[in-house]
Amino acid sequence: MNLEPMLNHLWELSHDAKQYSDLVNLCQKEAINNLPQRIVFNTKEILRHLCSECLVATYHELRTEGKLNRRTREERVQLLDREYLQNKGFVQYFLNKYPVIRDAAYNTVHDYVALCTGVVRSYYDNMYTISDALGNRYGSILDISLPSGDLHNGKAVCIVTFEKGKLVYKPRDRETDQIIENFISNLILPGLPHSLSFRFPKGCQCKNNSWQEFIEYAQCDNMEQVHNFYYRAGIYLATFYVFSSCDMHYDNMISCGEYPFFDVKTLVTGRMDNDMILPKSINNSILSTNVLPISVDSVALDINMSALFTGRHQSKRVVQYTIVPDKEMDWVFEKNMLYNEKVRKIERKIKNMKTQRLLVVDDNLSLIHMIREHAKNSGKMEVLYEAHDGEEGFRMIKNHANEIDLVLLDLIMPNKDGI
After folding, report:
1. How do strand 330-339 and strand 381-387 relate by DSSP bridges?
2. Rounded to an integer, what distance in angstroms lies between the CA atom of residue 173 and that of residue 385?
3. How large is the C-alpha radius of gyration of the chain?
4. How does pLDDT run across 31-56, given as a tens digit for each residue?
5. Residue 418: is its pLDDT beyond 80?
6. For the packed helices 127-134 and 99-125, what is the interaxial angle rounded to 10 degrees?
7. What distance in Å separates the CA atoms of residue 298 and residue 98, rounded to the nearest whole number?
8. DSSP letters along 14-67, please?
9. Rounded CA separation 80/67 (Å)
10. Which of 79, 305, 352, 355 would you call most buried, defined as having the most Cβ atoms within 10 angstroms of its Cβ?
């Protein structure tokens, strides 16, 4: 299907003309005349995603009613494009028939245009301050990505592309990032038995928002970097556990070689006593941070969302539908169990990795058993040793250092604590 005519009508019917006109005037003032066109293009991608499934349903209805009476699918699609998708009246009928899509289209377009307006204003009001703080003259804005998370009243994290680089725009201050940076730098790193460098993203605080350097994904070059990566991830894990942070899933972490980076939106989170979300045995442990792999059959979302990508990535209960070609119906909805698509490439890469040998140090025996089961199910980890307090764990490390690839360590234990 050629959706472009329909998307043009959807844009015309969904956007706020005055709001968009204000954005165009702002862009003209800052001499970034091509940006509004790019924003419209991005907005159409949102609309394409919103309407595709119901459009297929409408296609089936038109065909059943005999309004697409042609011999082949190609001929039926051509008729649909010519008689319906190019017709503004049909698009208005489509929106009225599906009011949820109509409202979602208006709200999403309105919020995205508001986000772009806020990004442009923030950057050009603080351009020299941002350049000085981050050490680069970025030039004009070329593109503002679709939000990496949910839009909330025109506020969301997004990636902004400039003539000379990229930056991450955040609709909040940098206080939580600075708390984490200060905690690790001043309380944890000085107490380590050996020097370990940490990288924290450079940032610039503006009024009611902030800018941060864009971290490019990069693989580790050797096993030493892999070990350093997990060592640093363990330090982050301990820090998040201390602050009761529980939203450190894969969307909030990026790996740049041996350095993990986390986007800390909410630092402290109250524990929720609800077994449908997480069982108490997990909710009161380091697993609640979402840094480590976890999937539990008894909760509503039984798919692993952890930052470190191991364990089950296909749900046993949550269903998703995809549109696939069909000889008789032209298109049908194929039922599949929800799958974490972002891990497919990583799964291919780890197939040839050797099994990681673990030492688990924790005085909670049930938690050790749970970790042992998760390691076994992953197929790439094995709990080789376990210890039940800090002193025993230290002896294990000393006596079996050449056999252990990774140590999972509790913070609070008898005799000697994890720190």
Report:
1. unpaired
2. 43
3. 26
4. 998 999 999 999 999 899 889 889 98
5. no
6. 80
7. 35
8. HS-HHHHHHHHHHHHHTT-TTHHHHHHHHHHHHHHHHHHHHHHHHHHHHHHTTT
9. 9
10. 305
